[in-house]
Inverse folding.
């Protein structure tokens, strides 16, 4: 059994209650300094109880240039706090329904919408992701920086975006 600190238990417990499984934002009951919390998260990542995934959300645990990375609970992390069966990490199918349904990131959803034949309007992207307009436009810029060719067309006098070529 993995020995966890109080901070790590609080981080994992909070993540287990979130639909996306994110460790951020962490509980206000954590009074440890930010550096201690960062060390706890690094330890959870090293132990495989959390994983790092690219995110566009403001709840990033670290950034690397234009990229933001969030920390998310894993099946092993759920087992470590007694959710699921103890022992080896459960298969992804045994994740709580809210977590298994949210494995797709919003960035992946944007890509999926832009790859449709008809593409997607800014309003459709905003509705699908729940982001503000400036965040959605920033995501489009990020995709361009990654090498995606995004074409702009008109659909009933509304600008429509579609990926022409993938990176």
């Amino acid at each position: 059994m993995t020995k966890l600190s109080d901070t790590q238990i609080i981080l994992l417990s909070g993540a287990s209650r979130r639909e996306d499984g994110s460790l951020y934002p962490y509980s206000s009951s954590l009074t440890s300094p930010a550096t201690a919390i960062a060390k706890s998260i690094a330890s959870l990542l090293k132990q495989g109880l959390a994983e790092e995934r690219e995110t566009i959300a403001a709840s990033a645990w670290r950034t690397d240039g234009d990229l933001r990375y969030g920390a998310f609970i894993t099946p092993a992390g759920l087992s470590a706090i007694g959710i699921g069966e103890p022992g080896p990490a459960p298969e992804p199918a045994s994740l709580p329904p809210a977590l298994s349904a949210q494995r797709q990131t919003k960035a992946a959803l944007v890509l999926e919408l832009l790859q449709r034949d008809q593409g997607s309007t800014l309003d459709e992207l905003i509705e699908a992701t729940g982001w503000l307009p400036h965040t959605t436009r920033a995501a489009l810029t990020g995709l361009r920086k990654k090498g995606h060719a995004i074409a702009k067309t008109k659909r009933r006098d509304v600008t429509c975006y579609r990926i022409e070529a993938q990176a």
